[in-house]
Amino acid sequence: MKTLLKLLLTAVAVMVLAYVLPGVTVASFWAAVIVAVVLGILRVIVKPILVFLTFPITLVTLGLFLLVINACIIMMADYFINGFKVDGFWWALAFSLALSFLQTILYSMIEKDKA
What is the CA radius of gyration of the chain? Predict the structure, then answer.
């Protein structure tokens, strides 16, 4: 149940960011849900492979290259989804940073207090 809620919150965040960032467009809420699903799949399957292959450069840049990997994953999602468009690498980077920030805020609202 919590996974489905996180998926819907990510879709809402994608819609908000598409409204705020002029270089990102989403056709509909269902396209945003598909973006959330595809991003989740790409983060689970592709991101570990990219992190492994680029480990030396990630180490040299003290982890900042992970931002580039996240932007590449956003651009892969743009390639696979018809209703989702990102206008280039810099918009993908901005979208990735803003999405991570929004997800942190939204996910913290559904986490139960453990204290």
Answer: 14
